[in-house]
Fold these 2 entries.
Entry 1:
Amino acid sequence: MAGVFVGGFIGWALDQWLDTRFFIVVFLFLGIAAGFLNVIREAQRMGDK
Amino acid sequence: MIDWFISAAHAATQDGGHHGGGGFDPMHQFVINRYTPIELFGYDASFTNASLWMVIATTLVTAFLVFSTAGAKLVPGRLQSLGEISYEFVANMVRQNAGTSGMPYFPIIFTLFMFILSLNLLGMIPIPGLGQFTVTSHIIVTFALAAFVFVGVTLIGIFKHGFGFLKLFVPSGVPIALLPLISVIEIISYFTRPISLSVRLFANMMAGHTMLAVFGSFVVGLGVNVGLAAGGVPLIFMVLLMGLEILIAFLQAYVFAVLSCIYLSDSLHAGSH
């Protein structure tokens, strides 16, 4: 969940800084991917125990 | 579930409002009161009820550990075995999640665990004259704790590995073409840690205590308006929820400490996975 926010924020900040519009979209998707990565990691860790 | 929860809380506040004599506001328990206004360098650093409960918590933990270790015997008494159990519990947690190389950082994990646990549990106890307040139900407190863990763990990683710490963001066995994408995702996922860590603790505590307040209002509302027997039904639920809340208070302190251990282990063993 938090991945989406962090990705969105990085994208938004880059957009503000570079005066563009598309970074927020790219980083939102990257944030979603990071969120999934976190969930998968956590699930693997639970499986280990 | 969440929708019902919000609408129930909303209905409860609309019934009486904040001002009415019989008014009920499930969020009122989270209000911060300034006891002694202090201003430091233009910042509001007043001694509030949150500060008071943190002082109570640290005093209790310190007293507990001092008394449980004072006059330690070979055959432990009740207090001493309680102290030993809490030590063993956290020590095993650190060993399992961060390995023996994580043991130098045992004191900080133990402090975090005991502090959060005592704050969570103190929030369950209404004290006459002081009322009841859960410090960990405020995001700024949990975020400060999580940010402290995050910065600390990052610094440990940099001191241990130097530039090798950056290997944390380059998983081994990834094709070179995918590496830039994966690294960016890894970096984003690294920065989500303090946010998810703090939101998890804060949301659990706040939601739990609001739910208790709403159910408590059902007991009074039904008992007064419908009949004593009708108030008994939510009262039974209250007892069960109280038990659940105590479990959550413990569980969330445990989860916070375990995740801190895992983050610590990541920066201690950066590049070897």
Entry 2:
Amino acid sequence: MAKIGAPELTGRIEIPKLAEGASADQKSYIAKPDNMAALSFPRERLPNWKEKAIEKFGELLKKYRSLQLSMDICVKCGACTDKCHYFIGTKDPKNMPVARQELMRKVYRKYFTTEGKLFGGLARAADLDDNLLDEWFTYFYQCSECRRCSYYCPYGIDTAEITMAAREIMDSIGYGQKYTLEIIGKAETIGNNLGMLGPALRNTLDFVEEEIKDNTGVDIKLPTDVEGADVLLVTPSADFFATPHVESLIGYAKVFHQAGISWTFSSYASEAGNFGMFIGNYDHMKTINKRIWDAARELKVKRVIAGECGHAWRAMYSFSNTLNGPFDYLDKKYPSPVHICEFTLDLVKKGAIKLDKSANDGFTVTFHDSCNVARASRMGDKIGGQFIIPRELIKAACNKYVEMSRGTTHAETFCCGGGGGLLTDELIDLRVKGAMPRMQALKAVIDSNGVNFFALICAICKAQFTKIFPYYGLEMEMVGGVHQLVSRAIILGAKEGV
Amino acid sequence: MPTIDFKGKQIEVDEDGYLVNLDDWNEELANYLAEIEEVQMTDAHWEVVNFLRNYYKQYQIAPMIKILVKEIGKVMGPEKGNTKYLYELYPGGPAKQACKIAGLPKPTGCV
Amino acid sequence: MLTVIAYAVAVIFVWGILSRFIIWLSSPNPLKIPTTPAPKTFSGVVARIAGEVVLFQSLFKADKKLWLGGWIFHVSFLLIVLRHSRYFLYPVPEWVMVFQTIGIYAGFTLILALAFLFIRRLTIDRVNYVSSFMDYAVLLLLMLIGITGLTMKFIGRPNLIDIKAYILGLFSLSPEAMPDSTVFILHLLLFLLLLLYFPFSKLLHAGGVFISTTRTQTDTPVEKRHITPWAK
């Protein structure tokens, strides 16, 4: 572990000088042949991989306008060059969004443009050779698809789309990443990313029920597969395993209990996350997403609610209707998945649940906007609701709330450093460095305001920060979920006037 | 597939050093794996390992961290029933490092 | 000769742009991927794109200096084109006269802005790293077009009547004799080179920005089911 050097925390984000190849050694593990085959990818790299890759590239250009446009219209103005957390953290120039895109664009020029055919190297057109493919595998798995660069791009070019396409091409030639593909395999066969089978899930939830009973004296159930429940709750499976994730799980359960709304988990669709999105594969994304809607139909619920998970919310909010809609079997009043934050805040506003803010008086809280929620989805009816709703909920649950500096929150938020399929141990050095911009902004409010609770609404963010805080000399106990605050503040028991 | 050399026997592990075949595990090998991880095995460490293995046998997955915390608290005393103590035992994380020494596969997902 | 080149370039330019738009528009958007927060209505999208095209608002958020340089260049270019319309239109409409003086100033600001963009590209290590020969070449080309244009205004004034007759002839497909001015011929050739390069290069951003998926989609995945033929 000695080699992993966390940058020094100064509270300032500085744009580094370039250090060529600085993160070239941060490489994901290659997926196992059986894993590849299970997902209908070639078991290993095809002998004629180059032709196949170019063929797939051509196919994707015709299937995704975003990709075709991105290849054509970048002027390399440089606006994005200092926006990526992995660049700021690693200093590796290939982590500048435009340079990452160029890895793909130079192949595009060579095979698909007149400019590249005429001017070759002068226009930076290049052959897709072993070296370049190697760079693809390295640097397209050093992008967390957080879209921060896309927010600043004058033409809206989205590196996430390019990264997804590159991963899709690599998968199609038998060159996949172990972490994401292993998880997709589990999600499609077992129903969640952990690979937790039904009995284990039930045992876990029984345990959580006991915990709640021990701590509050109240019988609160975490039901599974209850037909006819009003709500199907779909949450990242990390909530069934990790800390602090489980504290939010307890929070959700208390909210449903206290509001008197019947709800259930599904042991078939026990995962909100959708790693199919990370690899840009439409079919896998659809397959994973479909489990949720099949479960909703089968359990005859009225509505579907999503737990605290960033990319899952993008997949559920932005893509579900396209992938597996329409949801005419749900209650007409709730035609779409609702985010748990919106759901809970609504109950608070209606007075259906009451929060005692003083329960969190030991905390000074700040909130980290998760990238996929901030820049790829919405909560509630209002444009920008994804920023307003979690903040209102936090402020309803605690007295001391502090905002991190401008340019690092809302649509300009920095990724935690572990999103997009990079939350894997072999990339730990990248993850530590990629978290640096967020850590600097956090450090500033720790120093100025004594922030000691870092509130999150994403399982990846929670796992990532819990893991990397110690590298920066911070206590991992600072990391928590928004519903962890709700869980502490909610007043359980008989309701007044009901 | 990488292997580790243990008592003249080649034992298959994955890139991170987790056993590929769970049946390869025995207590001696656990000690050896712990050595590689620079973990000094004590009774408390064994409690964790044994609990993980038993749970895994029943449920084909490692338990939720909180379940493990509670169990350790029950066995070792309430003052030790917390995540911090588990990290003291296994600095590489109670889920990941302890699973490795217990011969279980690495937990996957957003954990 | 120049006449033939001009027509050939015009054909290639129009064909190039059209075919590029056909390629773009025939490639679908299978998923809803607006960069949020995004508008929920079509008029909201129009306003968003107008903000990008007229004010470069995303660029403004990204980099103020680059925004200033880039915006001055583009506005100067527009003013110069408007000023030039007096050479293509007969009789010259009233509004064109508004741009005559300001169009000259724009000639200078254009060159200054281009010089800024060039130096910036060269000296900021991050931008230099991603720049190819062609990225510099196109800035130089634009600068040369500006310089030859200003040369005609301030150093060797060619016969404007001849030039206008020639250009109107080109437009009406009944070409007149080529004007006897080396600077003018150079100016025109360089401009034709720019037109020729345009449809095959990053200069396409001028068209692409209008249909950029992340900026033109509404944030309405729930309200309206978004489906495309291949992704059902």
